[in-house]
Write a structure and sequence with these properties.
Helix content is about 35%, strand content about 25%. By secondary structure, the protein is an alpha/beta fold. The longest helix is centred in the N-terminal third of the chain and has 13 residues. The chain is globular, with a radius of gyration of 15 Å.
Length: about 190
């Protein structure tokens, strides 16, 4: 895990403003949204790999990760076609098409087509802890990490040990506004 300095953000911020103006990002300030997405970036493994951003919506944190980490292949998973269209437009506009894919369907179809192939799964407002864990476990390869957005106040009870055990996840702790889990399946 490492800190990555922000790059020139003019194009990224313009893309996010356009997405927000079209209703796919709430009324939050873009600077605050990018700062929160940077918390995801700060805990990503330092090696290259593949990332799946679940419920990408307006591109947070997925587009920020893609801009900040040119070494990563990023799949933005968004089942709502209108939002997927906005993401595809942003990906093209930011020149990311060679390494960023918009998967415009339900995550279950991605998991069926590409089980255990991602190094990182990210989720911001995707679903309940159990739903998020279920799909992360289906998508992550052994040793991969799940990074989820956390509420401002630390609530570790959101992630009971029974849930972690069920999905073979190990809590790596809270880092600013995100929590990191490592996917670990013990082999007999």
């Amino acid at each position: 895990m490492t800190d990555h300095p922000p790059s020139d953000d003019a194009a990224l911020r313009a893309a996010l403003h356009e997405i927000r103006d079209r209703g796919a990002i709430g009324p939050t300030a873009i600077d605050a949204a990018v700062a929160h997405a940077d918390q995801f970036v700060s805990v990503l493994p330092t090696h290259d790999g593949a990332v799946a951003d679940l419920g990408s919506g307006g591109g947070l944190p997925g587009l920020v990760i893609a801009v900040r980490r040119p070494d990563l292949m990023v799949t933005l998973v968004e089942r709502r076609r209108s939002r997927a269209d906005l993401l595809e437009r942003a990906v093209r506009g930011l020149g990311l098409s060679a390494r960023v894919t918009v998967f415009a369907d339900d995550v279950r179809f991605l998991a069926a087509a590409h089980p255990g192939t991602f190094d990182v799964v990210t989720a911001r407002s995707f679903g309940s802890p159990s739903v998020t864990m279920r799909w992360a476990a289906a998508l992550l390869r052994q040793g991969g990490v799940l990074v989820v957005s956390e509420p401002p106040a630390d609530r570790p009870h959101r992630w009971p040990s029974s849930l972690l055990e069920q999905w073979s996840m190990v809590d790596q702790g809270r880092h600013q506004g995100v929590r990191v889990f490592r996917f670990h399946v013990e082999h007999p």
